[in-house]
Amino acid sequence: MNLVITCEHAGNQVPACYTHLFTKAEEVLNSHRGWDPGAVEIAKFLATEFSAPLFTCETTRLLIEPNRSLDSHQLYSEYSQKLFETEHDVILEQYYYPHRNSVEEIIGKAAKPALHLSIHTFTPELNNIIREVDIGLLFDPERKGELNFCDKLSDSLEQHLPFLNIRFNEPYKGTDDGFTTYLRTKFADEEYLGIEIEVNQKYIGTEKWEMISIALKQALVDVLYGEG
Hints:
- By secondary structure, this protein is of the alpha/beta class.
- The protein has a single domain (2-225), classed as Aminopeptidase, CATH 3.40.630.
- The protein has six helices and eight strands.
- It is globular, with a radius of gyration of 17 Å.
């Protein structure tokens, strides 16, 4: 199985020509709204361990959201929505299409099936609701390849991380608007497995954070190269 790893919310960088949009938004930029803290470290670790191609977006999602489709109301935030349409077109060409087109191209050329792991993290509390999930595996349950893969990955993760809560399609649904959802429209079940891995940010800076990264690696080894 040909592995490709991406991280759509790897950073919260603001290009110099757009700093005026975020003059009073430092706190928001540094929050979960601006990026996915910790996600790129996991993505780089896994890419290195598996010698897999890695594609990352370092620009803040508050400028443009690379994990949303073009018709999504979340494509631009309240900071960038007010720009003229011509400026939106420039942002698309510079920060949206390069990432998505590069990933789609490499998957198209890869030996099939291609396994795409999109690495994300999530805030432990949203809208005053505590999220109980620790690691979420997001996929389309109607695609047998993704379902079988996540069944095996979850079983292995539970062995390596018995103290954590691992769930399917939480804290988001794998069929919600996202990059993997788009790519499923381009590649058939037998050609493409698009899995989003979501890790709870509450473990950043703790010893469990490194344990999670190592467990994800070992679980992938178990599934990709083991008997199961």
